[in-house]
Amino acid sequence: MKKHRILISILVLGALLRLLFLSAGDPINDESSIAFRSIGPLDFDLAEFQTTPLEWFDPSIPAWTSLSFHDHPPLAFWINHVGMAIFGESRFGFRIASALLGIVSIWFLYRIGKKLYGERAGLISAALLAVTMNHVHYSRTGMQESILIFFILLTILFTILGKERRKYYIWAGAALGLALLTKYTALFLIPVLFIYLLFTNRSVFRTKEFWVGAALAFFAFSPVIIYNLLLYQTRGHFDFQLSYIFHQNPPEWQVAPGKDIGTLGDRLRNFIPGLIRSHAWVFLLITGSAFIGFFSRLVRARAETLRTHRLLILCILWVSLLMLATGPAYRFLALLVPFFALASGVFFARVYDRLQEQKRIFAVSLFALLLLFEIGYTTNNELLAYARGPEIWLASPLKAENERWGYSVLDDFIEDTLYRKYPGVVFLKKYKFLENLQNESLAKAKQRHYMPYPVLFVYDHDIFNLAQLWVYDRRFMYHGWPFIPTEQYYKMITGQGSDFFINAGFRDFYFIIPAADMTLRRMTPISTLGPTLETELISRGIEPEVIENPKGESMFRIYRFTP
């Protein structure tokens, strides 16, 4: 019972770190693009240099384009879509799946550690995964990593259980297929599991259960296979990721964001610094101690050590090789965290077992202190509005990926303004599939007896691209709310007359411009007509409403006006 209470405490602690203030951070990285496309799900996010099949084939879009996405397998998008269907089109809605699956991953690691190394190793490994900042961070974002880690650990757990009951190999295959359907980086599991089974249970390759599992893996991943075959048939190349790997250089994707990973030497040099910048230093210190202990034991008993740790070695080795191929970006390095936690758990358990009773008290106290620091480090970087203390030692650069810049506060302001309303005036869309989305949204709003609201939002274009995608563009694309940049506003009143928007039926007008304190702006700075419109509104005596970040700094000014 005591061990069960410890496990429950670990899971509760992991849940608190992942669920508290889940909506707080701004969606400002790839999370924004994934969340935007998960609403549909829809393979379109206004990427000028990375167009999609929906744009190429509109209005006669083939049915097979819904099987996958042009740059990623589809499962994470579908899972996030379910989250928003249940909890609403919100930051909480697109993050909740990552949080919940991150919590379950803690239990999976406990089961893996217990099966391979015993109860104590499983509990320590789970405790480390529950509190370490990197896994908490990706469990609190709507990206693919937490979902991917969930399916990776599930695949490994079923493979281990398969040695006891062969039916688990069937479920291992299904889990592997779902991991691949989440992200291509799960491919590292194939050589890991093949080599592991080759050395531990070679006879499994002659069993029905293994091949049924392999068939399930293929079946689960088949939407991506069919998608790529038909994409190649119609366009002469595979999807964005595979076309890059096979050097196809399709004309649609001459710009490849995220693929500038440098030379092999650059990737090797950036590996350790990347780990340091994206993990708590205490967690890396613990992991480093575990590695030293492993190599020390390897010198004394090589065959036994390799046999005991072969699955863990294979996982760390193949993920590390994957990093050399993809580059050590923070989101890729996150795949190492469960295996680092497991290695550390095994190390601490072995040290504890070898100590005398009096020294065990000291060892437990030391581990508790390390765990408390890790909890504090994670809390400082993930739960507090702004991390305090010197970078690396107390604050992590990873925090910048969901910093509270003020975009979420603006998002909440717009949400409150548009609550239980639908656009009274809409613009025509460039693509038929967007027109259909807009019409579906209007029909649902009318069925729910929302009120029509003839409002126009004009915004200064000097805002961060990915933040704009979630705060402005999703409302425009999915729901028809008129959001236009200042340049387009002036172009229309210059060409159509100053009363154009009034004649079109608009009655309320909002102008949104970032304040001087807002530092996160467009990746490529541009000159805008926002200051011109603001000067005009100020000269008319219109006072703005100010949007502040949690520090009390002015992030946006919002003017309500009439042309």
Largest sheet: 5 strands, mixed
Terminal Cα span: 70 Å
Strand proportion? 5-15%
Number of helices: 25
Number of distinct beta strands: 7
Indicate the mean pLDDT: 95
Structural class: mainly alpha
Q: What assembly state would you assign to the polypeptide chains in this entry?
A: single chain
* Strand order across the largest sheet: 4-3-5-7-6
Quick synopsis:
This protein is mostly helical and 563 residues long.
Question: How would you describe this protein?
Answer:
By secondary structure, the chain is mainly alpha-helical. It has 25 helices and seven strands. The strands form two sheets. A five-stranded mixed beta sheet has the order 4-3-5-7-6, with helices on both faces. Helix 5 runs antiparallel to helix 6. It starts with a helix and ends with a strand.
Element layout with pairings:
Elements: H1 2-19, H2 30-38, H3 53-57, H4 75-87, H5 91-117, H6 119-131, H7 133-139, H8 145-161, H9 167-182, H10 189-200, H11 208-235, H12 240-245, H13 264-278, H14 281-300, H15 302-308, H16 310-326, H17 330-333, H18 337-354, H19 357-383, H20 407-417, E1 421-423, H21 432-447, E2 451-453, E3 455-459, H22 465-479, E4 483-485, H23 486-496, H24 500-504, E5 508-514, H25 530-539, E6 545-548, E7 554-561
Parallel strand pairs: 1-2, 3-4, 3-5
Antiparallel strand pairs: 5-7, 6-7
Helix pairs in contact: 1-5, 1-6, 2-4, 2-22, 4-5, 5-6, 5-7, 5-8, 6-18, 7-19, 8-9, 9-11, 10-16, 14-15, 14-18, 18-19, 20-22, 21-22
